[in-house]
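User: Hey, my collaborator sent me this sequence without any context and asked if I could get a structure. I don't really work with proteins. Can you help?
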Amino acid sequence: MPALCGLILAAGASARMGTDKALLPWPPNTEDGTTLLAAQIRALRPHTQAVVVVTGRNAERLEPVIARCGAEMAVNPAPERGQFSSLQTGLRAVLERGFDAAMITPVDCPPLSAASLERLCAEFAQAVTRGFWAVTPEHEGRHGHPLLAGSAWIEAILRAPVSSNAREVKRAHAGRFVSVPVPEAMDSSGMNTPADYGAKAQARP
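Assistant: No problem. I've predicted the 3D structure and written it out in structure-token form, which is a compact way to encode the shape of the chain:
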């Protein structure tokens, strides 16, 4: 299997949340100071050889968490262009570090369990040998994150104009993706508002 680099997209302004989503406590009812960004890094690290976090104007705020968790930072110089620009920034950083495959997630999509991530990795290893580009987790017909992607998908993303989005690229190459069932509910839209975050808090034990 290609060596995986974890990639967390955390450059958003979090305008609707009113505070940086990456620094929200996670799980929501935790009292140990763990943030959503730290939880994401810790979830991805056992399944990857490195983790890169894409930041934007929030780089100074997130850098201590990134360093403390043993990850690396890539800064999107123009995060106002949207998440696709952060994805392209992050994938260039992945390639610069010598990787040709990535485990990719927005910071505001809660991390899956270790068992689900292990299953995704195993399915990805088989998929790339059969010529597929990527695998995505799926639950009851809904897809989410992380996406495990190989070099062909990375190249397709980097060739696309910055005005595009990952959904369009995936739609253009739908036959190259494999869906992997997982037990966790999927919410690909992430947490954008305090109400979204509160709903996740209610859903946690």
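In plain terms: The domain at 4-203 is CATH 3.90.550.10 (Spore Coat Polysaccharide Biosynthesis Protein SpsA; Chain A). You can pass these tokens on to your collaborator as they are.
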